[in-house]
Design goal:
The chain has 377 residues and is α/β, with parallel strands linked by helices. The chain has helices at 8-16, 34-38, 43-50, 63-70, 86-98, 113-120, 140-146, 169-182, 206-209, 238-248, 257-268, 270-294, 320-331, 363-376, and strands spanning 22-23, 81-84, 104-109, 124-129, 151-157, 185-189, 214-218, 231-234, 299-300, 309-310, 313-314, 333-334, 336-337, 353-356. This is Aspartate/methionine/tyrosine aminotransferase.
Amino acid sequence: MTRLPDFRLETYFSRWEFTARHHLTASDAQTMTMSELLALADPGDLHAWETLSFGYTETFGDPALRQAIAETYAHVDADDVICFTGAQEALYLAMHVLLGPADHAVVVTPNYQSAETVPLSLCEVSGVALNPDDDWALDLERVVAALRPNTRVLSVNFPNNPTGTLVDAADFARLAQLCDERGIHLFSDEVYRGLELDPSRTLAQAAELSERALSLNVTSKSLGLPGLRLGWIACRDKEVRSRLERAKHYTTICNAAPSEVLARIAVKARDRILERNRAVIAANLPAFDAFFAEFGELFEWRAPEGGCVAYPRYLGTDGVERFCAELVEQAGVLLLPASIYRSELTPTPGDRFRIGVGRRDPGPALDAFAAWLRGRR
């Protein structure tokens, strides 16, 4: 295994996330307070919270939590679910379980950095880029061309971070079928599922389409509860699940008991939380549309099809890296420049930035952003 590179996003956030006045690049939906979450609990879960003891929990995860998670899938049982400390641990361990030095993986880009760098630390990896000139479309023929006889993993992320794009349901089903035909594990990052602008475009979860597929999810993004640090993988392949549990013995061993009870409450109340968060995004988008319309000479804007982040193009001659640096230093408005999403596998547009649309009341941040831009005219 080669040494992993610095995690660019987290390094950038270490400098700015809690010091910038306006966090306008948040990747999670609107969060809630402890009292708001507990108000959603049924009597049994509220009792479990009030009588909770702080002993070790099961490595696979709290059985009642796994049952609640399984009920959000078709064809998935509680035994098909294993919980982790966030999605990052799940992704890291899954790649180590599925890939070895003689293997090959294919990763669709752009993507969350570890979706690329962790496989690269283990084996050969090829990238297939979404097309920025065609609304970030995925070309299935390019995916097929990238596969090799020793390909073991195809990693995808829809709704996509950072672009907010979706694929058609038929294309996603074709990806699952293609992987089954070739003995490949489809690894599907689904952390933004449930925040589609058009709910009719919500994709099936990969674990519903294939016994070999792995569906990754977490309470952090669509549910807006990153502080719980609770993620999971659903997979109907018993051998893969067993290997994931054994791998977890070397990292967190088990999840935090308070997080498991709170996550159980959130997952059971998932429909209400998602409805609220979709409403926040829908209310916010006109403000973002108006902002980018005012500065049409500087930006190409496209609202996300799913999730709560978008990836506009910056047209200024100073370049997006300098633009983002000066914006946060002078106006206190934090965005993520294209370098954060640079890929070692595919050409990556260098004129983009990530912006978040899922937090309540983006007005003050957009006002500060607009005032700064007007001052530069």
